[in-house]
Amino acid sequence: MFVTTCRAFTSAALGLALRQDIVALHRDLLGSWVRGAHLETLIPLSGSGGGTSRRPSA
Q: What are the tens digits of pLDDT across the range 16-27?
C-alpha cells in the first residue's frame, strides 16, 4: 500500500502500482479512511479515484 497526500498519481505511477499489485491511496481517500471509511471500500477506488477491478485478497 502506498498512501500519499497528493491529489492524483501520474499515469506511470498508477501503471507501476497496478503491475506490482500496490494499492495507491491519494489524499481524498486518505481523508475518507481517517474519517472511518473501511479500507476494503476504498481499495477499488485506489489510484486516481476512478476505480479499478482490484479487490482485497483474503
A: 988 898 888 888
CA 31 vs CA 16, 38, 45, 52, 54: distances in Å: 23, 12, 13, 19, 20
pLDDT of 39 strictly over 60: yes
30 by DSSP, 3-state: which? helix
Cβ 7 vs Cβ 26: under 8 Å: yes
Say which DSSP state 48 is in: T
User: Cell digits for 39?
Assistant: 479500507
pTM of model > 0.90: no
Contacts with 36 (C-beta within 8 Å, 6 or more apart), sequence order: none
